[in-house]
Amino acid sequence: MSSSWLLPRRTFLKSASASIALPFLDAMVPSNPVGRKKGKPPVRLGWFYIPQGAVMEHWKPKTTGKDFELPSILKSLEPVKNRILVISDLAADHCKGQGAGHEPSTGGILTGYKCKHSEEPEAGGISIDQQAAKMIGEQTMVDALTMGIDPGHRGDHGYSGTYLSHMSWRSPGTPAAVEYTPKELFDRLFGGRTLRAPKWEEESKTSTRKANTSAMNADDQIGFSILDMVHEDARSLLGKLGSNDRAKMEGYLDGIRSIEKRLDLVEKENQESGSSTSAKDKKTGKASSRPDLMIPKQAGRPALYADHVNLMLDILVMAFWSDTTRIGTFLYSFEKSGRSYPELGVSGSHHSISHHDDKKENLDKLVKINTHHMELFARMLTNMSRIEEGDGTLLDNVALMYGSGIENSNKHNHDNLPMILAGGGGVSSGGHHLAMGKKTPVCNLYLDMMSMAGLEIEKFGDSTGRLLK
Asked: Tens of pLDDT along 225-242?
């Protein structure tokens, strides 16, 4: 490849019916006179929310600084500990509500303002992810992704139920639409068509393939790939790239195909077993009227919780890697979630268990749920650490907050929140436990995260200043 050849950053693999953004490649960075690459991939921002707090005894490290031991809930972060900052004593006073702890927590956590006590939702301001989208969203194909696993239900104590399952707000009264279904999310990001599986070794036959599949029905499309539509463009590009970039591209395309295969399995499972949109009462066979027992099971969504989460997070990783978006939010479930986790040996509603009354049986169940959620997050971080990008990895170029707007769900308190900042976007001193020693607005952390992405703002919500400078 000629050293003078430079690939535009916003290059896509294209066909008449599909378009796929590319990952960050060496060929996208100009060289200086001595041939050394310069430049850096952009920092992506993400906010990941767990409902109903955490058991802090098994979350908060016992010592501060660098030489701390990860508690049991955080143990899965060990492989990426050098890219983790555990931050204690952060508070979200703006999440305090009138007689309610859950609705204002999700609804207000990213806005820095109190949610209006009303059946008509009004979050008080736009959320920090949407503020970032206003500033850099036009540089990517999708300004921001808003993702979740379970839709919420009605609110209580005079609050709108919208608050329970929406933490991203485009305006004070307009929540961002949440993506719950992996297939719909994948289609939105990577073209939306399923074709036949690509056969890269059969290059001589490529010219005879037909790109138009409008006559296919849904059953015929299972097992097909969007990659087939951009095969010619991909083959042409691969021939121009250096060996390192070729390896990155092949890994990226393999990653897309792996996700497609898993989506196909979900479609097949749905076709074989059918799906239901709500839980049914075992005695009457009728839909349950108790929202805390509604465990969503809908078409296009894996039956197993971990499979659903992993698919969504893997798609987010691909979106970050390809710079399709630089901003994402993810709800592990809504506040007051009634999801049960039988695969963990945890029976009963998560929300009901979270009102533990300090009973060991309930606390043990909550630790299992907290640990499971963290393991899924750690899996994503570990995958990011294996993706080469620029002079480091994708994990080096993200800043991701993970935590909750509630500490102890039995008390509904909003201080000493369980919070982690992950990634190398600005965590140069990763592998630390930072204890503030006093209540510090969580919005201070948002200022730092924005700065990591090159977005300087002086104030957001109830912030009082930068946290990490």
From this structure: 667 667 777 777 887 888
